[in-house]
Amino acid sequence: MKKRKSIPVNPMADQFGSGIAVEKISVKAFSAAEMEEAGKSHREDGHSFFLLEKGSVGLEIDFQQYTIRPSELIYIHPNQVHRILSFKNVTLSCWSLNNENLHPEYLQLLEAITPAKPLLLKKETFSLIADAVSLSMRFFERKNDRLYHSLLKDSCNALVALVISQYLAQTTPTQQLPRFEIVTKGFKELLERNYTTAKRPAYYAQQLNISVPYLNECVKNTTGYSVSHLIQQRVILEAKRLLSHSDKAVKEIATELGYDDYPYFSRLFTKVVGKTPLTFRNKNLD
Questions:
Q1: Domain coordinates in residue numbering, the chain
Q2: How many CB atoms lie within 10 A of CB 157?
Q3: What gap in Å lies between CA 150 and CA 146, rounded to an integer?
Q4: What's the mean pLDDT in 113-137?
Q5: Is the preceding peptide bond at 277 cis, omega within 30 degrees of 0?
Q6: Do 41 and 244 form a contact (C-beta atoms < 8 A)?
Q7: CATH top class, domain 9-168
Q8: Tens digits of per-residue pLDDT, 203-220?
Q9: How far is Cα 68 from Cα 87, in angstroms, rounded to an integer?
């Protein structure tokens, strides 16, 4: 794992220099040293997918805890910070692609489903994805093929499409979404790209060519929260990540998140979280 002043990044997708990785792992149990390393919070360098065939894995993703069981699949976005809490008698398949190797349409869809909860697959679907992983691993080993990277990229994108289709099966198709949900979806996509620089609802309303009251009406109807609340929550999530998993000074974190007025950032964080940034860091620091 690459150590840096900010949140550590596990170079899974680029461990072989291709920006794509696919592998199958079987581990009965970690040693104490291995468990200590696995338990360190980090990000992945690509969009990562884990298909559990056997055993159970305890995960913490952005301060939420999950237990992954057989026939379940989990998608982790590169922005998300996670760590392993437990890992016993596990057989799993995993694949990861960085942004450059991911089909643009799939990238957009993955942004929309983040954060994604573990997905329990039906037996037939699990078998199909497991077979597709096995085929991708065979392509992964054929490094001398003239079209090696294209074969690997296309097969792994097919895997991603299979996973996305399962997540989308649980949601309403875009063409059937009410207007409120379409607007909210557009707002969330903009928010993910601009939360460090744009803190006012007016910016997002302008980008969507609608009024601020109408944007608030759409978002409140769909999520139960105001636009300002969601902007604030996205900033606070990133602040929590950086406070817990990086060595950056609190003032540096405030600046990175778009707050030149450090006392204001500190008051905001304290109001939302119920703890000062330093108190939160001391309690949650890795």
A1: 9-168, 176-284
A2: 18
A3: 9
A4: 93
A5: no
A6: yes
A7: mainly beta
A8: 999 999 999 999 999 999
A9: 10
CA angle at residue 146 from 160 to 151, to 5 degrees? 10
Q: Of 140, 50, 34, which is closest to residue 95 (Cα–Cα)?
A: 50
Contact 93, 51 (CB under 8 A): yes
- Minimum mean pLDDT among 17-31, 72-86, 180-194: which range? 17-31
Q: Which of 77, 16, 84 minimizes the C-alpha distance to 45?
A: 77
The amino acid at residue 285 is L
* 176-284: CATH number: 1.10.10.60
Q: Do domains 9-168 and 176-284 have the same CATH topology?
A: no
Residue showing tokens 């964080």: 269
- Using alpha carbons only, give the angle 65, 107, 153 rounded to the nearest 5 degrees: 105
SS (H, E, C) the chain: CECCCCCCEECCCCCCCCCEEEEEEEEEECCHHHHHHHCCCEEECCEEEEEEEEEEEEEEECCEEEEECCCEEEEECCCCCEEEEEEEEEEEEEEEECHHHCCHHHHHHHHHHCCCCCEECCHHHHHHHHHHHHHHHHHHHCCCCCCHHHHHHHHHHHHHHHHHHHHHCCCCCHHHCCHHHHHHHHHHHHHHHHCCCCCCHHHHHHHCCCCHHHHHHHHHHHHCCCHHHHHHHHHHHHHHHHHHHCCCCHHHHHHHCCCCCHHHHHHHHHHHHCCCHHHHHHHHCC
pTM: 0.83
